User: Which sequence fits this backbone?
């Protein structure tokens, strides 16, 4: 490669088109249209998100310094992003110092290639997996399968999803869209040797999964994990989980391969004190998660004796290059924003078409994978999949201003999109509204027409496209006889305001009379 | 106090009663309401739909119309428009305007209030002397609640209204599903959100659902009207402007007429 300086650095690459799980097949409105009909999904989501919302509010409300913890989390993450390259190199040095090997993967395809090669080198054709967003994002399991390696998901919900050949719909509760009867059917069909009389009692289902997984923990020599945090100062990696399956994967096998998005690095060991409070309280509504595993390279005679860390970019540097959008990299994947999102609650996770659903997914996915990679790229619909209600911003433990990021991405989209009917309409509307005379003329012109369409009951029940979606479920009131400004300029307006002033003066003069009214 | 009234394009054109009520209320409280005649629109719809170049003249127009230092405060009967002025105008001005515009925006943003903020924080009143003898439930719109952080100010104002039967709205802080062009672009999801909101409103048995934003009320009201519910929507200003001398009359609904 030439080392000549070529001027401006190229825009860093996004996750390559057609790889991994960062783009759905349909736009959000189209996908949501189908998902909204799924009563099971809506019921489960409603119940689950509400329960977890309440729990989260209880355990965040009880901390007197919760807001300051959020500030600290945001500050540490922002500092991290500002000096990401130096921190990553420090992390690499420390991991190597402690006997690990570090690999740099530009994108998902490279990461898949690296992990598969490492597995093949061990001679095993099986791996056990800790629930991980990063490997989900790059489609590692599918890639491994293509090379004859079977990956076993060991998180209960991930296992359900995997056995059903399904996709996760929630960051934390991947099988949130399934009920226990469905889980029973999935287990009966897919777990080898399972009791054919298995019922849908949750404890029995968990026992069936446990028996199946236990055998894998004992026999499979390679594990693949993600990481919640990677500490630059010490080279320590961390996984935070609830079921203990992670602990098994991280300690039992001979070889551990961890795939970590480069934004997961933290500068200091001490920073964990902030994040180990923020994460469990925001995600599961627990004060502390049951299992927190920390490991630093290799410890002779204890745990995996071969450790590989794969640092994954896959569009993260591209996101980092965006002055505004980079804030999304601060995300610690707690899923609080999903659980409070009214759009997610109705449409469900699959409608986003990405490993990252919900509010954060709507900003992160387009940044990692782009939103103009093809004509009518489904990702370009994601920033619009929000009513901008702001509940996500309030819930986010690292204070990511998701609504502002959505607005920014919408802007980036309209800047890149070709001239559309909408763009022309927006231009036309602005040019009318910036000329007060034209604006008032337009107001007057719209009135009679609107009233005519509305008819005697003074409401409009059917509008033409693209507004027909509105009138499918809502009426529009007929325009009033007079605009406010016309009223104000009228005799009636003047008289009304005079009367109000007089009434006010009367009450001010005789306040007691008013009190006795 | 000399108060500049921004009618908002939606209020001026489609919901003048809410703007009238704002003017009447402030006048009754002894303030001088001025209406800069060249005002049009804050540009919120443009920005929220992804257009930031187009609204530059709107942002400029707003700053020019209300920049006049003799206007001590600017009020608008809309939480989302106030939110746009306070949070978005600067972004637009800094990106596509010039330094002079950014300065003008900063000056006008500092004196811009949504109605309940103006009343409680600036004018220091919660009892505005209103009378409204109906059952009312209040929907705190998202932008009032989470962008402007008006908190319980609207409720304190409503509590002080004589004769009112104020009932709590279940899941009040949930979005009604409007979201500007969201309601059109994602009509199905928006409808699902609206249905839940309408169900919660109806469960209160209220005569009136009120809020501080005509756009959300248009959405909720449109849903109520479609199912011919007996509950109507009125802007908070209309309730606060209502007195024994000049009471607000409830709009007819099809259910009530039946
Ligand atoms: S954006 Fe914030 S709330 Fe959402 S998953 Fe990430 S850290 Fe959690």
Assistant:
């Amino acid at each position: 490669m030439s080392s000549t300086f070529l001027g401006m650095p190229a825009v860093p690459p996004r996750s390559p088109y057609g790889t991994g799980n960062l783009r759905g097949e349909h736009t959000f409105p189209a996908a949501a249209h189908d998902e909204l009909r799924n009563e099971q999904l809506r019921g489960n989501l409603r119940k689950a998100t509400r329960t977890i919302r309440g729990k989260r509010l209880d355990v965040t409300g009880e901390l007197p310094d919760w807001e300051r913890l959020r500030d600290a989390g945001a500050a540490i993450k922002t500092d991290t992003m500002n000096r990401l390259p130096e921190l990553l190199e420090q992390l690499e040095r420390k991991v190597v110092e402690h006997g690990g090997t570090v690999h740099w993967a530009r994108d998902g395809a490279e990461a898949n290639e690296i992990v598969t090669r490492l597995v093949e080198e061990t001679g095993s054709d099986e791996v056990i997996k800790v629930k991980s967003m990063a490997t989900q994002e790059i489609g590692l399991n599918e890639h491994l399968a293509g090379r004859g390696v079977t990956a076993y998901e060991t998180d209960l919900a991930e296992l359900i999803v995997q056995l059903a050949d399904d996709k996760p719909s929630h960051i934390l509760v991947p099988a949130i869209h399934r009920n226990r009867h469905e889980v029973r059917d999935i287990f009966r069909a897919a777990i080898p040797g399972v009791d054919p009389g298995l019922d849908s009692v949750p404890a029995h289902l968990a026992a069936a999964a446990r028996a199946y997984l236990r055998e894998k923990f004992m026999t499979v020599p390679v594990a693949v994990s993600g990481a919640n945090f990677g500490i630059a100062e010490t080279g320590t990696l961390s996984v935070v989980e609830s079921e203990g399956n992670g602990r098994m994967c991280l300690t039992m096998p001979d070889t551990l391969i961890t795939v970590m998005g480069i934004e997961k690095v933290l500068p200091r060991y001490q920073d964990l004190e902030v994040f180990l409070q923020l994460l469990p309280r925001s995600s599961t509504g627990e004060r502390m998660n049951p299992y927190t595993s920390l490991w630093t390279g290799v410890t002779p005679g204890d745990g995996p004796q071969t450790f590989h860390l794969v640092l994954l970019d896959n569009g993260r540097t591209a996101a980092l290059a965006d002055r505004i959008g980079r804030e999304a990299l601060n995300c610690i994947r707690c899923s609080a924003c999903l659980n409070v999102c009214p759009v997610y609650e109705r449409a469900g996770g699959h409608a986003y078409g990405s490993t990252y659903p919900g509010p954060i997914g709507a900003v992160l996915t387009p940044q990692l994978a782009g939103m103009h990679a093809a004509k009518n790229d489904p990702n370009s619909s994601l920033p619009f999949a929000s009513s901008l209600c702001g509940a996500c911003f309030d819930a986010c433990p690292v204070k990511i201003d998701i609504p502002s990021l959505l607005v920014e991405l919408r802007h980036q989209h309209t800047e890149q999109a070709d001239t559309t009917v909408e763009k022309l309409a927006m231009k036309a509307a602005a040019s009318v509204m910036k000329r007060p005379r034209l604006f008032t003329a337009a107001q007057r012109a719209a009135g009679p027409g609107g009233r005519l369409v509305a008819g005697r009951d003074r409401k409009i029940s059917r509008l033409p496209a693209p507004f027909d979606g509105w009138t499918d479920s809502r009426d529009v009131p007929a325009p009033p006889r007079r605009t406010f400004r016309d009223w104000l300029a009228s005799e009636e307006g003047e008289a009304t305001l005079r009367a109000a002033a007089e009434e006010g003066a009367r009450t001010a003069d005789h306040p007691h009379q008013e009190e006795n009214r | 106090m000399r108060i500049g009234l921004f009618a908002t394009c939606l209020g001026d054109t489609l919901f003048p009663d809410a703007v009238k009520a704002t003017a009447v209320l402030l006048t009754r409280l002894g303030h001088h309401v001025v209406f800069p005649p060249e005002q049009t629109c804050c540009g919120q719809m443009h920005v929220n739909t992804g257009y930031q170049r187009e609204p530059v003249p709107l942002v400029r127009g707003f700053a020019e119309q209300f920049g006049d230092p003799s206007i001590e405060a600017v009020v608008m009967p809309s939480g989302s428009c106030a939110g746009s002025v306070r949070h978005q105008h600067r972004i637009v001005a800094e990106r596509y305007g010039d330094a002079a515009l950014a300065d003008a925006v900063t000056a006008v943003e500092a004196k811009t209030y949504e109605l309940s903020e103006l009343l409680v924080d600036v004018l220091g009143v919660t009892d505005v002397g209103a009378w409204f003898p109906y059952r009312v439930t209040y929907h705190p719109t998202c932008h009032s609640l989470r962008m402007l952080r008006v908190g319980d100010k609207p409720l304190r104002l409503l509590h002080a209204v004589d004769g009112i039967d104020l009932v709590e709205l279940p899941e009040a802080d949930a979005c009604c599903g409007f979201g500007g062009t969201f309601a059109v672009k994602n009509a199905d999801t928006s409808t699902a959100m609206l249905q839940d909101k309408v169900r919660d409103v109806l469960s209160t048995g209220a005569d009136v659902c009120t809020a501080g934003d005509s756009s959300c009320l248009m959405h909720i009201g449109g849903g109520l009207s479609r199912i011919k519910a007996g509950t109507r929507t009125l802007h908070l200003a209309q309730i606060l402007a209502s007195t024994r001398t000049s009471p607000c009359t409830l709009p007819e609904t099809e259910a009530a007429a039946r």
Observations:
- DSSP finds 14 helices and eight strands in chain B.
- The radius of gyration of chain B is 18 Å.
- The domain at 2-122 of chain B is CATH 1.20.1050 (Glutathione S-transferase Yfyf (Class Pi); Chain A, domain 2).
